[in-house]
């Protein structure tokens, strides 16, 4: 009888231990907040989903996200084909993974990767924003004036920003 009670207690302890491990694992997985930036411009719906990244006493670029390392930042969805003006960059799929390769000196590379793992790249020069110190990495989708019909995608982290236009394919 005593052997049965010890075995039952052992089973209960294993179940409780498993529950505690699963509980903490679920907290870790689901506490990573996702942000969504979205906007509809000229009949095209734009959406960017990205992880919430917050830095304390650290720079995003070069420290939190090391230079010369490709970093996946999120996913971008578009309801109709668009292109980056004055380039050959055409985004004609509804969904892309959005990654970046930041460099300490020189242009950065943006990667748009579709569901077939085809990569489209775009070189972009980052610029410094003065009097800002964003501790959260943020994306914005804006309609710049007076350039109607185009979307301006902006990524801000600490005092550094990149931005590019997307225009409808006619």
Structural class label: alpha+beta
The radius of gyration over CA amounts to 22 Å
Largest sheet: 6 strands, antiparallel
Number of domains: 2
Number of helices: 1
Order of helices and strands: HEEEEEEEEEEEE
* Helix amount: 10-25%
Number of strands: 12
Beta-strand percentage? 35-45%
Instruction: Quote the average pLDDT.
Output: 82
The end-to-end distance, rounded to whole angstroms, is 81 Å
Gross geometry: globular
Placed side by side, the strands forming the largest sheet appear as 1-2-3-6-7-8
Ranges where pLDDT stays below 50 over 5 or more residues in a row are: 2-7, 16-31
Brief overview:
The protein has 170 residues and is α+β, with helices and mostly antiparallel strands. The chain has one helix at 2-30, and strands at residues 34-41, 44-51, 70-78, 82-83, 90-91, 95-101, 108-113, 119-124, 127-128, 134-142, 151-158, 160-168. Residues 2-7 and 16-31 have low confidence and may be disordered.
